[in-house]
Amino acid sequence: MQHREVELPWRAESGGCVLEIAADGTFCYLDEAGLTGWRGLGFDADVGGQRCRPTVKAAEAGEGECELRLEYPATSLTEAVRFRVLSDPAALTVERVFANAGPEAVEVSEVRTSLAADAAAVALAGASAGALECIHVSNLRESSRRVGWRTGPLVSPLPHGPRTLGDSEGHPFPALAVGRGGDYLLEAALQQDLFTQMWAIRGRYDSPHPAGSIYADYAAIARDGRRQPLTIPPAGRQRLSWLFYQIKTGCEWQGLYDDYLAELGRQYDLHGHRSPLLNQALYCTWNYTFFADISEDILRAQCDLIARRLKGVRHFLIDDGYQRPENKPSYDMGRFYPDPAANVDPVKFPHGMKAVAEMIRSAGLKPAIWWSPAMGRDNDLVREHPEWLCLDDRGESWTMDASGPYAKAALDFSVPAAREFVEAVLETLFVEWGFEGIKLDFCTYPFDSKDIRLRGGEGVRWWNWLLATIRKLIGPDGVFQLCGGAPYGNPFLGRWCDNHRVGGDIGKGQWTRHRAVSQAPLPLLAVPGRATLLMDVDSAGVRADLTDDENLSRLNFCHITQGVMGIGGDLTKLSETQLGWLDRITARCDRGRRVRCPDRRAFLGEPLPEVLHVDYPPDGPTGRAGVRKEVALFNWDDQPRTIGWALAALGIEPGEAIVDFWTGRPVGPADGQLVVSLAPRASRLVQVRRRA
Prior knowledge:
Elements: E1 4-5, E2 10-14, E3 17-21, E4 27-31, E5 37-47, E6 50-52, E7 55-62, E8 65-71, E9 77-87, E10 90-100, E11 106-115, E12 121-123, E13 133-135, H1 137-140, E14 141-143, E15 148-150, E16 155-156, E17 163-165, E18 175-180, E19 183-189, E20 196-203, E21 215-223, E22 230-232, E23 237-248, H2 258-267, E24 281-284, H3 296-309, E25 313-318, H4 352-362, E26 366-371, E27 375-376, H5 380-384, E28 408-409, H6 416-432, E29 437-440, H7 445-448, H8 459-474, E30 480-482, E31 499-501, H9 511-517, E32 534-536, H10 548-560, E33 566-567, H11 576-587, E34 595-596, H12 600-604, E35 611-615, H13 621-624, E36 627-634, E37 641-646, E38 658-660, E39 673-678, E40 683-689
Parallel strand pairs: 24-25, 24-33, 25-26, 26-29, 29-30, 30-31, 31-32
Antiparallel strand pairs: 1-7, 2-3, 3-4, 4-5, 5-6, 5-11, 5-12, 7-8, 8-9, 9-10, 10-23, 11-21, 11-22, 13-16, 13-18, 14-15, 17-20, 18-19, 19-23, 20-21, 27-28, 34-35, 35-36, 36-40, 37-39, 38-40
Helix pairs in contact: 6-8
């Protein structure tokens, strides 16, 4: 597009919204009335340990676009801020690219977009902070190093005190929405190359702001999660922030991200739209029965049964437990040193892992394997190469859980020799042994734990390097599962991965565990896996000591939530009825569709929805089988319940045929409602048939 130099202020209108850039470089993006949106936002950065606000040197513009050229006084840092006004639908993107024009390297710790003057505001017409809903996945859960724990409902009031949303190790979905009654202000990240996006906010509860701001404090911040500075070398250029702004009107919670996801899809080739797991199920050896107690004979028995009875299962994943018996804890990547191929249990796998991969292929399945960069401290790698290890704040070798039996070190991926070793391990798994997929577990803390310090570069840079290296080795059709460290919906992982874990392991599959882990997926059900990457609520499976109602509740939840269809357990011990259940949910995989939750109480309190429903397009596998919609209703309680929802709330038209998913028997609505009486811990899954 042709650009020409322009004088500021500069103005552009599109879709009922107005962008105006002032002479000092601050900008407003507001509705036509000028009462809702962002007013007077300005740019700054922490350069060389000092907060700096730039000056405007020039501006160029074309149709719907404007670029500011900024300079940071007393530094060699310059910045290009690119504004792009989108018309259908109306939205704004603001991209910030930094360059070093001087002869010396420059360190940038963070870049901010914040309220730049007293009259600046983030405003919703006539709204006060106390009446607003704040929607960010950090409301639901903050992450520990290993799993995420729920801390509150997804939809919460604006925080009374200072809070930074997205500043966690959980790889959260990078979008913040604030509003009420269908009107929302949405901000979301369009980049995660080196810095991650977060928001430091505090609601204005003390007194009315003269400009009507809903915030007393506000800043959209991009930085390394551990606050380590980025070094921009002489003549270097880096994009450090790229934000999407949208004023949403007449929008319900579950439609907030649609336009943002469409823009992400235009900018990146995300794996969700072509993942083999959209239409193929996966077996994993970990949950329900085996855990690490696996062997070549056990795997052969499972493969043989899958080949006979579960034709929809196409991938077979060997989880933790193939390593040498002295490898305790087993998730010690240091045990692959110095010879990666030697870290295999010779008793349980006497023919080696290459033979096991070939055995899986001979059963008509694609072999995948579990691996983790997590590392214990009691191994030769730690003893011989301390220079390969991450450091702590004191410059000493970093240790996690130092007082426990599973004390950990972490490999510093910024060290070239350490990366060469990792590549050798990965080449052993995928080139020498021949595995075609991976479950990458306990994987994030070497890159984003806040008490780790790297010798060079940023955590995101090396995290992206690891993911890209794995994807290159397994190829475009290999299955790439991401687990551990609680990756929570980060869409940028879709550049390499097929799925992200939501919630902890289902483990042995007890009812209490199912109930606990099922609280995690709610915020991301409305994010179709086909738009970014699939979620993983962990394996479906069957326990002999659970009732049929309890077992079917787990299967129904795994099915309706539209993530990876994975199964686990010792399949040879299941009854024909139980195998029939697994065959039913794996036979026709049609995953990654949008899931709707009309149960507002789940968003505002304990996130266990009593009803979920999915629409299927007519040209997909389920649609071609005559199914238009599926609806699942859940009783999470220990007492019987009758649950009813209006057909209109579920998107069911009067007169449409409704049948039970498991039996095919008709289910008759009553007085315009779908009503079911459920025993304790029971559920009901129904299908709405297409009209002839």
